[in-house]
Amino acid sequence: MKMISVFNNKGGVGKTTLAYHLAHILAEMGKKLLVLDLDSQCNMSLYGMKEEELESVWKGEDTVIDNGFDSAKQQMKECDFSNLFETTRSMHFILKSVEEGISDFPELPPPFEVTPNLHLIPGRLTLFMYENKIAQRWNGMFLGESLSIRTVTRWQSRMLNRKVMTLSLLTHPPVSEC
To answer: Which of 39, 139, 142, 176 is deepest in the core (most CB within 10 A)?
Structure first.
């Protein structure tokens, strides 16, 4: 699978707008795309979904985001917890197991279908929590700490290996200068 990443170290330069239009053009050309909204502002998600749909995604996963997978599993009925993986979930939900340092789930929730060739994994306002974990573990990655390496790189191996897509488009928040 090929990947396009749209990023810049400055906000307000049109990253999301460019990614949105590029995704739609490529989808119209017959490419199967998966767009990952990695920006906690969630503008790509708001462009691709109705506000009510996005709020429904977030509400359905609040227990996991707020309390973690282990606690949510104890609080919820087993069938309700299993059903979390049957509908679209946010990037933060998908990355939450890595943030917590626990093993991945066997199946990923399906992406949201924007058009038949264009699918979206929506962002979430709480995605900054995952970003903070990456920042904390960045040095550990260079030291070879397995948890740090998994935290920084796991999304690529999980999300980008979906066989139904030929191209992934990632939208990023502004990148801080070090």
So the answer is: 39
